[in-house]
Amino acid sequence: APQPELGVPLSPRAFFWLVSLLLASLIWFVSVHLSDREDAKLQYGLLVFGAAVSVLLQEAFRFAYFKLLKKADEGLATISEDGRSPISLRQMAYVSGLSFGIISGVFSVINILADSIGPGIVGIHGDSPYYFITS
Prior knowledge:
mainly alpha; about 75% helix; about 0% strand; notch signaling pathway; membrane; transmembrane helix
């Protein structure tokens, strides 16, 4: 028998992922502009810091999305005729984790494709000309 669709549209998942990415980008942007731009070691440390903050914020927002789904599921269970939830807790966790991964992958592919059709040098400041192929 085919699996029932989990019923959660992509747009709320994408919204939560985009908000987490926006916050991480803002934190990194502010930290870079408030620091000494000539210090290469500090800038590398800020890059690592930005990546760590991005992962932590994405996980925090994924958890918040899971809690939102759980609350919505409880509401659906209270108004259903039999008092049972139509979605299991495992399915909700799977949906929130998978959706963040899908949106992240889509954005990664779109950035690579945008680099492939635009003018100029692909890569940053004279990096490998094989950037697009390896990506």
